[in-house]
Amino acid sequence: MDGKSATQFKTEPGKQEIVMTRVFEAPRELVFKAYTDPNAIPQWWGPSRHTTIVDKMEVKMGGIWRYVSHDSAGNEFAFRGVYHSIEYPSRIVFTFEFEGMPGHVLLETVTFEEQARKTILIDKSVFQSVEDRDGMLQSGMEGGAVETMERLAQLLAQASHTSA
Amino acid sequence: MPRATTNSDAFNAVAERQRRRILNLLTHGEHSVNDIARVLHIRQPQASKHLRVLKEVGLVSVRGSGKRRLYRLNGEGLKPIYTWVVPFERFWNESHDRLAQYLDDQQKKEK
């Protein structure tokens, strides 16, 4: 990973949430728009090696969103949820679910705070249980878990080469 | 849909620390349940219980029979975890990096 990554992740043992914080050099109206404009999403959401399509995006209370992401190997990953509230330009509340792991639904609250023409974005995800969160995070507190996952990643890369 | 129980999907199966230790060990190759118990300093019935869960969710597969049963990692079963669980922080780091770039571009256009 490069050194410029500046998103802060905060987790506490025994709690079922993850709080991400990031500062953007832009007015919050613009950051809010990037989150709520279907034309903007494919330009930033997800890793750059993925192509993301907005399947549905009804930005209103009770509206459905669904993004479909493809990697270069042709794998498809779909994510979806429902908007609970849209408060321009300060807050969005919605559910989030990866279709590959159905039933593990997160409640996300994204807050946009403006300070001196910068936007502080706070994204709080609440999981259904501590186990859900720790499963998701692979418990970054344990050094070994990260190493395991790196090795698993290599293994998968090998597996996908041989099956391709 | 009812709430998934611990044994019903890969996601929950890896939330347990001992099961992650077993997976970690199996990244080095096949092992018998006795090997696993010995290396990880856990009781053999406990190791068997964890292996059963990992097998049910498709994270490990087994070959042979009786005491010579050998467990190994199943790459396919790990795919949903790798694609979602592993890169959570990376996913957002990278998305936010791209968002910063996008916001930059938008502001340049406005000027």
Structure explained in plain terms:
The complex is a heterodimer of chains A (164) and B (111). Chain A has 164 residues and is α+β, with helices and mostly antiparallel strands. Helix content of chain A is 26%, strand content 39%. Chain A has helices at residues 28-36, 41-44, 130-137, 143-163, and strands at 8-10, 17-24, 51-57, 64-70, 76-87, 91-98, 106-115, 118-126. An 8-stranded antiparallel β-sheet of chain A has the order 1-2-8-7-6-5-4-3. In chain A, strand 1 (8-10) and strand 2 (17-24) form a beta hairpin. The longest helix of chain A has 21 residues, at 143-163. Residues 1-5, 139-149 and 159-164 of chain A have low confidence and may be disordered. At the A-B interface, strand 2, helix 1, helix 3 and helix 4 of A face helix 2, helix 5 and helix 6 of B.
Short overview:
The complex is a heterodimer of chains A (164) and B (111). Chain A is of the alpha+beta class and 164 residues long. Helices cover 26% and strands 39% of the residues of chain A.
Features of the shown structure:
heterodimer, A: 164 residues, alpha+beta, eight-stranded antiparallel β-sheet, 26% helix, disordered N terminus, B: 111 residues, mainly alpha, 2 strands, 62% helix
